Structures are given as structure tokens and as C-alpha cells.
């Protein structure tokens, strides 16, 4: 079981590695970072397809998840502190842990740096932040204090692309009042059952949304469940190994309860002020057309943001907003090869 020791405090992150793809010297490495309650095992079905697409895939377990260092209660309390600067520091540390792991991958795993030949880019590093972990992506690019100069120097020759994969809109500072009950606000759901209810809700298949123009409050309310949730079809042994329900009330809720103003600030700086942090890294935002409204709405928020003009002296980050068709929030489990192909095509 491989572990990365990422700082002098002894913080350890568990990871799994598909290995170097067969016969490819200038392969690209993609680090996959999971979301709330589902650890890095949720990506494991993708790993057997990595070599076919010339990729090396590495899954990372965030802190609080199997094999990785838990958060202390003091660390968790910082996300919801009454002092917004303490919250900002907590989000900064959240992103910095991701960055430390990326640096570890560059320095310790012998991956090839980015090269350009005849106008085509080879090698290098990308990372995918799924759902809740998108907060770490936004911390890296939206807060210039998150990365040290040394980390920037290490990452610059490697890091090409960051994927924001189906994040909840609350991480963009937007929490629309759709008028629908969720596991977080349904009074009929006992506290002890919220994690299970969350897994059912977030892994469901709702009516597909054809495009960003159809992301409206009315359309979100009229959607219906059309297929069994992914977690209801997952084999029991896989479910018990991957689903970590206790974390919903720990780090998951803590990150989401940080001030919306901080999340929005990170969002705007990430996309409208590229020169502040690693300006050559592009962001590909993936949204899933059959996901829950809370993540579908983020595509609308980002689409509208990208219509704005940066402030004088600032430059918009190279960004793509890509819809994944017939996809729920846990597409990587149901259609693993297709997601590997999407990553390959968009790096």
C-alpha cells in the first residue's frame, strides 16, 4: 500500500497507481481526487483503461479517508470559525495538501515533464478534483497564498490541466433555492441516516439536461429519477470498502460550510485572474447532465462567469465547459473507460 508523506508534520496520504503505461515514454499522469463520503476507490474501475489511452492514473485519498491522516477537531473547527480569515486559512491548507501531493508525484514517482514537439504537447501532469474536492482546486488557483514559490517552481514544468468534475454549486458560492428536499434539509431523514440518504441522492440518475440554457429553477424542479442510483447497484463488498459515511458530518460538511463569499472569491480569481497562479494551466470543467441539481447548477454559474470580462490588467484562464452526456454524479463507476477517454481527449 503506497503512502505519500507530504509535510514535516507527518501528514500521510494513501494512493493507488495504475503504473507506467506499456510502451509509452512520454505519457501524461492524471491524479484523481475523490469527493464526499466516497474514497479514492470510486475511481478504481478507471485504472485498467489507463494504459490503453497512454495515461498513468493515480488515485489519492484525502485526509479523513482510509489510509490517510485524519483531521483533528481543531482543524475541522477552523472551516466554520466566526473569523473569516481563519476559514480562509483552513481552505488554503485544504488546497495546499493537494498541492503537496502533486509535488510528491512530480518529485518521487519519476513522471515525465511536459514537452512540446511539432506543436503537440506530451507528458506532464493533470489532476481531477471531483465534487467536494473542487474546493481544493479553487484554493490552489484562486488564492495566491496557497502555493509556495517552491511548489510553483516544481509544478510549472509538469502541470498542464486541472479538471473540475461535477462540483456542487455551493463551492462556487451559489446555493439556489430550488425548493427541493435533500438529505441535508429533509426533516423526515433522521440524523443517523443522512449519510446513507446522501449516497442514494447523489448517485441517482435524474432527467437529462440538454444544455446550460435549460438549467433553470423550473426545470430543476420538474426532473424525475429515471434509473437506480449507482450506490444501489454497487457490489456490497465494494460499497463497504469505498463508502465512508462518517465523513459526511466531519470534513465534508466543514468544507461546505465555509463562507460562500470565500468560495466565490476563489472562483472568480481562478477563472478571471489567470496570471496570479500558474497561468499556463488550463481548467476543464466537466458537468454531468443527469446529476443532482446541486451540481448541475454549477455549470450555469461558471457559464455566466465566463461571459464576464476580466478587470484591467488581468487575464481570463483558458477554460472549457464540457457536458458529459447520460452521466450521473458517479459516472466514473458506471462508465469508467468513457471517463478515461474524456480525460485523454481534454488534457
Features:
single chain, alpha/beta, two-stranded antiparallel ribbon, 13 helices, AB_hydrolase_fold
Write structural notes for this entry:
InterPro entries: AB_hydrolase_fold. This protein has 347 residues and is an alpha/beta fold. The protein has one domain (3-346): Rossmann fold. Helix content is 35%, strand content 17%. It contains 13 helices and 12 strands. It has helices at residues 73-79, 84-108, 134-142, 149-155, 194-202, 217-222, 230-233, 236-242, 251-256, 260-272, 293-305, 331-334, 336-346; strands at 3-5, 12-17, 28-33, 55-60, 115-117, 120-122, 125-130, 159-165, 205-206, 225-227, 282-288, 319-324. An 8-stranded mixed sheet has the order 1-2-4-3-7-8-11-12, with helices on both faces. A two-stranded antiparallel ribbon has the order 5-6. Strands 9-10 form a two-stranded antiparallel ribbon. β11 (282-288), α11 (293-305) and β12 (319-324) form a beta-alpha-beta unit. The longest helix has 25 residues, at 84-108. The mean pLDDT is 96.
